[in-house]
Specification:
mainly alpha, Methane Monooxygenase Hydroxylase, Chain G, domain 1, 4 helices, 83% helix, 0% strand
């Protein structure tokens, strides 16, 4: 067992499926394309409001990815930790990341 697997076991991680990884990667690549589009808009000296609308769309898309990951984490990893008796630590970690996410 390598260090990463050790770490994952300590964290009660439930590995993502290939389908979950593919879905997340597709969304992140779409967001990456949107960011490149905003860079081009800035280079082309486009109207500020148009750029801000695109930035708002990117922020919403990133938040959606984050919330989907958060939901999956709760229903898989936190749930597993609770069943296995380490729920308090997992919930504390979850609350810390929720606080970070909501800044």
């Amino acid at each position: 067992m390598n260090h990463c697997e050790d770490h994952n076991m300590d964290k009660k991680m439930v590995p993502r499926t290939e389908q979950e990884i593919e879905s997340i990667m597709k969304r992140l690549k779409r967001i990456e394309g949107q960011v490149r589009g905003v860079q081009k808009m800035v280079e082309d000296n486009r109207y500020c409001i148009d750029i801000l609308v695109q930035i708002s769309a990117i922020t919403a898309a990133l938040n959606k990815v984050g919330l989907n990951l958060l939901e999956r984490h709760v229903s898989h990893c936190v749930s597993k930790a609770i069943r296995e008796g380490s729920g308090e630590e997992s919930i504390r970690e979850l609350m810390d990341v929720i606080k970070q996410f909501s800044k």
